[in-house]
Amino acid sequence: MIVGTGIDLVQISRIEQVYEKRGERFASHVLHAAEFAEYEKSLYKGRLLAKRFAVKEAATKALGTGQARRVLLRHFYIQHDEHGKPLLMADGEADRLCKELGINSMHVSIADENEYAIASVILERSP
Question: Which 3 state secondary structure label does DSSP give 42?
Fold first, then answer.
């Protein structure tokens, strides 16, 4: 059963401008500790941050909180399976709310093209 869906579209250049001004402070606002290794290796840090920002905004929308109820962007993070498929994970307050709502499956799709990054998130629980 679908509990929530969320989608977010981000202009990559806007995120890159914020990153240029705030640097690591902005990265720490967006990224979970588990994502920093990939971020450090990335040649396109602004693009990576834009995609992660879109994912996390979509996730908070799907959860129904936005960035409220103490759910922060960095409470969601992306890992990859052995084939490179992105897997959405929750930590902290986001994880607590997911458990409270019975969410046991999270689906994410991420894309970027030229100036935009987009992400879609679906949260489910078993009937």
Answer: coil
| Domains in the chain: boundaries | 2-124
The span from the CA of 121 to the CA of 102, in Å, is: 16
Cβ atoms within 10 A of the Cβ of 92, count?
14
pLDDT tens readout for residues 25-77: 999 999 999 999 999 999 999 999 999 999 999 999 999 876 666 889 999 99
Residue 127, helix vs strand vs coil:
coil
Enumerate residues 6+ apart whose C-beta is below 8 A from 17: none
Distance CA 68, CA 26 (A): 18
Domain 2-124 has CATH 3.90.470.20: yes
Joined together, the tokens standing for residue 81 give 């399976």
User: Where do we find the tokens 């240029």?
Assistant: 20
List helix spans (H) across the chain.
12-22, 24-30, 36-41, 45-63, 92-100
| Burial of 1 per CB tally in 10 Å (0-12, 13-18, 19+) | exposed
Tokens encoding 32? 């979970």
